[in-house]
Amino acid sequence: MRRTVFNEDHEAFRETIRAFIAAEVVPVYDEWFAAGQAPRDFYLKLGELGVFGIEVDEEYGGAGIESHKYEAVIYEETARAGVSFGGSGVHTLLGLPYIKMLATDDQKKRWLPKFATGEEMWALAMTEPGTGSDVAGMKTTAKLSEDGTHYVLNGAKTFITGGVHADRVIVCARTAAPREDDRRFGISLFAVDTKSEGYSVGRKLDKLGLKVSDTAELAFVDVKVPVEDLMGEENKGFGYLGTNLASERWGIAFGAYAQAAAAVRFAKEYVQDRTVFGKTVASFQNTKFELAACQAEVDAAQAVADRALEALDAGELTAAEAASAKLFCTEVAHRVIDRCLQLHGGYGFMNEYPIARLYADNRVNRIYGGTSEVMKSIIAKSMGL
């Protein structure tokens, strides 16, 4: 299918990433899968490759490229190989936008050089045990000390991707009570050093999918956070979160499209090799029709994902457009991956086949970053309903 979203630089980067995956990830991926996470030193390799510094300004050791297209290439190439880069996706997709948007010059000098090298991995802690999509309902608190030098952080977070290996976590906490007319008021963001006393990582959560991505529970007991680590202005955190949700939802949408495309590739290869009743499975009309229908859906999802990518790079992706892209691409991926697994028969249920892992990994796309139901609510509101 003809595409205009990528140029020669992106394709050269694609070749580099594909070779890196073949050499550094595929041979050891089963070990990572069994361990439930990628090893910490793998992130240093990604830093050395330049993956984390693409959108970091040159003065801090990055390439200074203002584009998400290189991230998009990584989504496509990891899906194509049936692997992941562990919990590192949140480092760039979730961590970096907040640093670039909110950090002072002093904070950037402290944080970005190690961000780019992978020496300091970042995560975002928003979700709590009792609050998922209702961010304003969070209970974690950060109270300013009497001498005004630090905040005292108390509370808990859950479902934190990258939470096991993170060196800094952007923690959302209440610095003031919600107002009667604005329950979103009073939330602030802090870049918390995970080595701080009172900070602890609880369980590494056992998930249905995304087995190589470390996801954890976090707890804060009287954690002292220097005032110098407040991100942006106090009590305005909810607005900051809303600003970056569009890019997060684009990432989920694009990743889902890439997974659907990979599923078609896996199924096509399998049915061409697999023989039933003396014929290849690919030779049956039902197989051809199923894969043709899946390919048509992938083509549509690709167009939606590419359009959202162009809008994001132009700074024009609205909340409703991001919600629409996420809803459409994740629903397409759900249908396509299920049909492609069916074409594998019993082998599709075995984790040694990438389609089985893909099936499990894909399920969360319709939940995290805002559920499909929340996406529909956002879209309906934009329609004036």
TrEMBL record:
Provide the leader sequence positions.
none
The cofactors named for this UniProt entry are: FAD
In this protein, which residues make up the domain named Acyl-CoA dehydrogenase/oxidase N-terminal?
7-119
InterPro entries referenced in this protein's UniProt entry, alphabetically: Acyl-CoA_DH_CS, Acyl-CoA_Oxase/DH_mid-dom, Acyl-CoA_Oxase/DH_mid-dom_sf, AcylCo_DH-like_C, AcylCo_DH/oxidase_C, AcylCoA_DH/ox_N, AcylCoA_DH/ox_N_sf, AcylCoA_DH/oxidase_NM_dom_sf
Q: Per its UniProt record, what PROSITE patterns does this chain match?
A: ACYL_COA_DH_2
Keyword annotations for this protein, in alphabetical order, are:
FAD, Flavoprotein, Oxidoreductase
Q: Where is the Acyl-CoA oxidase/dehydrogenase middle domain?
A: 123-223
**Origin, by domain of life?**
Bacteria
Sequence ranges assigned to domain Acyl-CoA dehydrogenase/oxidase C-terminal in this UniProt record: 235-383
Q: Which Gene3D superfamilies match?
A: Acyl-CoA dehydrogenase/oxidase, N-terminal domain, Butyryl-CoA Dehydrogenase, subunit A, domain 2, Butyryl-CoA Dehydrogenase, subunit A, domain 3
Instruction: State the similarity comment.
Output: Belongs to the acyl-CoA dehydrogenase family.
Q: Could you tell me what this protein is called? A: Acyl-CoA dehydrogenase
